[in-house]
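Entry 14. Structure prediction run on the chain below.
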Amino acid sequence: MTVLGANVLFVSVLGAMAFRWGPFSAEASGVAGLVAVAAMAVLVLAQTLRAGPVNAYRILGAVAAYLLLGLVWAEAYRLVALLTPGAFSASHPSGAAEHDFTYFSFVTLTTVGYGDATPVHPAARSLALTEALTGQLYPAILLARLVSLTTASPSSSPVAAGTGPKRGTP
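Output returned:
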């Protein structure tokens, strides 16, 4: 499914829910939102990591992809909470409100973990674990890729810059 297709699906489900057309549910909206944000994250990340010179747009794309990953996890948490009431425990009496999943996601992605919200269902705990690992591995892998793109760039090689030996000379 393309990014455009995922976004059309997401907007269609939200529109149908707003106008109460068809048998669409909050679960369908959650899945559509998850797919749409994930597709956008994949598209931005693919453009960021493609071959070519590293520039400011690549760095901004990497930051945008990281933020989109946080939103993907937030959508996944919303879906788990919707399908499994009580999947999260919160220290404040109102429980986990919808906007709290974005907060929880970024606290988990950055591995800060304040402890004010806790995943208690196995599915929620698995998602939180996977997101924390992503939060640790993403910067390391991204930096390695961007460095390799920089060193592999034709403009950074000594031959391309005219400072190294020419081909065919002894």
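The radius of gyration is 21 Å.
Filed with the rest of this week's runs.
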